[in-house]
């Protein structure tokens, strides 16, 4: 029966993908013709641009038929490692393009109940085309692993920036909080909750602009039928779940502890921050109380996380930081007694007000009516929301070249994690088959990946006198603008899968 269900899913994916590809191709042609109709581009160049698009569409069809595998990439430096896998810098052999490759072990995903999260992560990245989120170029699999090939952002993350700077000035914090709001808004519009907003997942490009990453805990939510997730909805890693197993009956053991000065708290946080980021237990510092209490929760939980990050940017450490995760969870649950500002902190009244309106009860939390509610707060007065990613960033990281990894932690190449228990003989074969069925339709190829392919016929067609689409309309001229559509959100399958491979 399981094989029958998998075959049915494969066929459904095939036809859904085929129809979606036809529609997207029509939309790309329509967008280009609409842009040309309102431009002053000469007629001859317009014809050439349309031919260029047609040529790219042909290359995209070839790419769709090509079965991508890990051997298509040169594996370079490891730039991240977590409880479920690793992220590595890589170079595509055909194009020379540099990407970030996320690698997840299938058996671990099945054993640890992460299949739905893997599906949601891949689907969200395939659906959401935004300059505020990390772009997915390819997803594919082999017998043992799942792979996500994403754009590489060499500027590091906000966590690294905070560790270097201790605190940010309000103008710098305002810039990055504003870009984070746009990123959260972009995934909320597609009916997803991120559920893991934290400085580690806010990456910087070479120019210092922020993009949201790591959608491993994101959850699709059908707003027409369900406004919140149920209390039984799994959050993530079992160890983290156990560390957050708190409810309203917990006593506040932290009440009797001495309040550290801002300097003492900052020193203690810095000593433990990086270790917590890469532990399998993780840190609950940015998780909303309704999530910890296993109540129903919705998109508002991401805005709580934003408030915790804003506090850390301006004060130097998270608002509920403690020596151990359990105490942190207790403080979050009893947030009314712990949202405090150190006497030596110098925050504007507007900044304090916004933090307090984010770190509050879900029924009164700003953002419950949408991101525009937060954008209208006085702290953001003067922010040009539609120009944020066009202006100079508040901080520019040092990046020497496209392979520069100086803004990331160093990792050993040796992976000392114990191998997953997959058994042996016939039972092992059966388990592998069952495991593979969980990931039918995982393959994805982004149209934008065609731009860097170096095929002979594409090179022959290039001309110094023919401007590119991007040169005329800007780098985002032909960026896919996939509109949010609840119908494309699949809870139990992969959307936009490649029909030619699993």
From TrEMBL:
<comment type="similarity">
    <text>Belongs to the protein kinase superfamily. AGC Ser/Thr protein kinase family.</text>
</comment>
<keyword id="KW-0067">ATP-binding</keyword>
<dbReference type="InterPro" id="IPR050839">
    <property type="entry name" value="Rho-assoc_Ser/Thr_Kinase"/>
</dbReference>
<feature type="compositionally biased region" description="Basic and acidic residues">
    <location>
        <begin position="480"/>
        <end position="491"/>
    </location>
</feature>
<dbReference type="InterPro" id="IPR008271">
    <property type="entry name" value="Ser/Thr_kinase_AS"/>
</dbReference>
<feature type="region of interest" description="Disordered">
    <location>
        <begin position="467"/>
        <end position="502"/>
    </location>
</feature>
<keyword id="KW-0547">Nucleotide-binding</keyword>
<dbReference type="GO" id="GO:0106310">
    <property type="term" value="F:protein serine kinase activity"/>
</dbReference>
<dbReference type="InterPro" id="IPR000961">
    <property type="entry name" value="AGC-kinase_C"/>
</dbReference>
<keyword id="KW-0418">Kinase</keyword>
<dbReference type="InterPro" id="IPR017892">
    <property type="entry name" value="Pkinase_C"/>
</dbReference>
<dbReference type="GO" id="GO:0005737">
    <property type="term" value="C:cytoplasm"/>
</dbReference>
<feature type="compositionally biased region" description="Polar residues">
    <location>
        <begin position="492"/>
        <end position="502"/>
    </location>
</feature>
<dbReference type="Pfam" id="PF00069">
    <property type="entry name" value="Pkinase"/>
</dbReference>
<feature type="domain" description="Protein kinase">
    <location>
        <begin position="73"/>
        <end position="380"/>
    </location>
</feature>
<dbReference type="GO" id="GO:0005524">
    <property type="term" value="F:ATP binding"/>
</dbReference>
<dbReference type="InterPro" id="IPR017441">
    <property type="entry name" value="Protein_kinase_ATP_BS"/>
</dbReference>
<feature type="binding site">
    <location>
        <position position="102"/>
    </location>
    <ligand>
        <name>ATP</name>
    </ligand>
</feature>
<dbReference type="InterPro" id="IPR011009">
    <property type="entry name" value="Kinase-like_dom_sf"/>
</dbReference>
<keyword id="KW-0723">Serine/threonine-protein kinase</keyword>
<dbReference type="Pfam" id="PF00433">
    <property type="entry name" value="Pkinase_C"/>
</dbReference>
<feature type="region of interest" description="Disordered">
    <location>
        <begin position="411"/>
        <end position="430"/>
    </location>
</feature>
<keyword id="KW-0808">Transferase</keyword>
<keyword id="KW-0597">Phosphoprotein</keyword>
<protein>
    <recommendedName>
        <fullName>non-specific serine/threonine protein kinase</fullName>
        <ecNumber>2.7.11.1</ecNumber>
    </recommendedName>
</protein>
<dbReference type="InterPro" id="IPR000719">
    <property type="entry name" value="Prot_kinase_dom"/>
</dbReference>
<dbReference type="InterPro" id="IPR059233">
    <property type="entry name" value="MobB_NdrA/B/Cbk1"/>
</dbReference>
<dbReference type="GO" id="GO:0004674">
    <property type="term" value="F:protein serine/threonine kinase activity"/>
</dbReference>
<feature type="domain" description="AGC-kinase C-terminal">
    <location>
        <begin position="381"/>
        <end position="454"/>
    </location>
</feature>
